[in-house]
Amino acid sequence: MRKIILSVISTLVVIGLLIGGLLLYVRGEGFSAREQPSWMERTMAQNARKIATPSGAKALMNPRQQQTAEMLAEADEHFVEHCGICHGIDGRGDTLIGKNLYPRVPDMSQPDTQQLSDGELYYIISNGIRLTGMPAWRFEDKPEAIWDLVSMIRRLPKLSPEELERLRKAAREAGGELSEQAGEPEKKEIGESPKKGETKPKHTHIHKH
Predict the structure, then answer these.
(1) pLDDT in tens, 150-159
(2) pTM of the model
């Protein structure tokens, strides 16, 4: 019994020291988003996505894994217009907003994101994550559109040059910060006529209204 009491007291002392250290750090440094996150904060942010997802959601299977050309195009447009401003059109988070959020926007082409299950990705997109910059999209987008985004995220580590150019084209058409990410389009030779399908497509991804 004495050992148990000593163990509890020791644990409380350690917790108290950690909290005290955190309070001293905050008093000295503040909560500025300009600072690089500490290893502890990075670890907490990485695990927040897993902790935030109920066990039942983790097991959800993507019912739209078989993607048609139309579904791919809609998901690309959707990703660029809704996600690109923070995550970048290639999902790597190298954007003005992404680099200045706290915690930083993750590179979704890397294992920390790719190792999440389809259900976890779906839940995170739908419900967001508290105390981060990740919003909830469940009231804006229909479930099938969110599942298509999950499929799109799975393609990020191995985007082909053609896929990347399609994303850049959508970003240029969206304008603003997104068009700056995309850079200038390739110049056509004098007299070369526009290729078929190069006109701006209709806004096709699915929203709830």
Answers:
(1) 999 999 999 9
(2) 0.70
Residue 194 located in a structural domain: no
- CB distance 114 to 124 below 8 Å: no
Q: Are 95 and 105 in contact (CB under 8 A)?
A: yes
Please check whether residue 135 lies inside any domain of the structure: yes
Measured in degrees and rounded to the nearest 5, phi and psi for residue 207 equal -120, 160
* Cβ atoms of residues 169 and 89 within 8 Å: no
* Distance between CA atoms of residues 155 and 181, nearest Å: 19
Q: Does residue 124 form part of some domain?
A: yes
Q: Which amino acid is located at 70 in the chain?
A: E
Report how far apart, in Å, the C-alpha atoms of 166 and of each of 88, 100, 161, 192 are: 14, 27, 9, 20
Q: What angle do CA 103, 42, 90 make, to 5 degrees?
A: 60
Report residue 135's pLDDT band, with 50, 70 and 90 as the boundaries: very high
Taking the CA atoms of the chain, what radius of gyration do you get in angstroms?
A: 22
Count of structural domains, the chain: 1
Structural domain of 135: 41-182
